Amino acid sequence: MPAVNPNFELRLARDEADLIAAQRLRYDVFVEELGGDGVLVDHDARLERDEFDPFYDHLVLFDRARDGAAVGVYRLLRDDRAAKLGRYYSEGEYDLTALKTSGRKLLELGRSCLHPDYRGGIAMRVLWNGLADYVAEHGIEVLFGVASFHGTDINALRGSLSLLHHRHLAPEALRARALPEHFQSMDLMPEAEIDRPAAVKATPALIKAYLRLGGYVGEGAYIDHAFNTIDVCLILDTAVMSERHRSLYAKGTGA
Fold first, then answer.
1. How far is residue 101's CA from residue 99's CA, in Å, rounded to a whole number?
2. Is residue 4 a part of any domain in this protein?
3. Tens-digit pLDDT profile for residues 34-91
4. What pTM did the predictor assign?
5. How far apart are CA 141 and CA 147, in angstroms?
6. Does 50 map to a domain?
7. What is the pLDDT of residues 226-252, one digit of tens each?
8. What is the domain range of residue 152?
């Protein structure tokens, strides 16, 4: 159970202990809760990790009232560091040519999760405030990354995916596209036939939050059987965020 009065500390991981705390939370969420797996997942130590972790910044939310446990995490990669690494994580699923040739300052977001006890509260706002600080500090213009629906049954999500395709497709200048060998169309039914309330309800809260901020999705979905998810590429252009949306995102929004 969460502390009645959480005592949050948000920081970039500064040592191996911080990274392990983040990976342990990721294991609890992505492996134990959602049924994912991966080549470098350490089931004995209960750590969800991969070969990209050493190259990324890890924004970690700790609750001192919970013995300092990590309760939220974001994994971040700026374009200058991606150039040195040679690729983004998302490039295993999406063709990012449009983004990479846009001339904009990019930031890839990934492995975002919250401990179940902290969902629906202020923890996500605290994380977003920290993310906003990071974006401002590094002059980021476009944020992107894969976000997931739980499960791999495309039929069960046809309404939600179709709604994303019809209402939230990114402009061509920023439109990432699922790789041809894994491309799953999201145009699965005419917009007029979508049960909109049901489609919205079945869409994960994180995806809906980015859409409220003015976010887009790339073209096509990716079915990730290893992680038991259907992934979409979310894209957020900070230049076109409305002032109302910007105020929800920026520092000082009441977190």
1. 6
2. no
3. 888 888 899 999 999 999 999 999 999 999 998 889 999 999 999 999 998 999 999 9
4. 0.89
5. 19
6. no
7. 888 899 999 999 988 755 556 655 554
8. 87-104+141-249
Which residues touch 174 (CB under 8 Å, ≥6 apart)?
98, 99, 102, 142, 216, 235, 237
Q: For the chain, how far is it from start to end, CA to CA, in angstroms?
A: 20
Q: Shortest CA distance to 210 belongs to which of 150, 159, 148, 121?
A: 148
Return the structure tokens found at 13.
Answer: 């991981």
The partner residues of 62 in beta bridges, in order of sequence, read 9, 70
Residue 96 lies in a domain: yes
DSSP state of 74: E
Two structure tokens written together for 3: 């502390």
Tell me the β-bridge partners of 153: none
User: Tokens 């797996």 map to which residue?
Assistant: 37
Q: How many domains does the chain have?
A: 1
**What letters, b where the CB count within 10 A reaches 16 and e where it falls short, cover 203-237?**
beebbebbbebbbbbbbbbbbbeebbbbbbbbbbb
Residues 217 and 172: beta-carbon distance below 8 Å: no
Q: Which secondary-structure segment (H or E) carries 163?
A: helix 158-168
118 falls within a domain? no
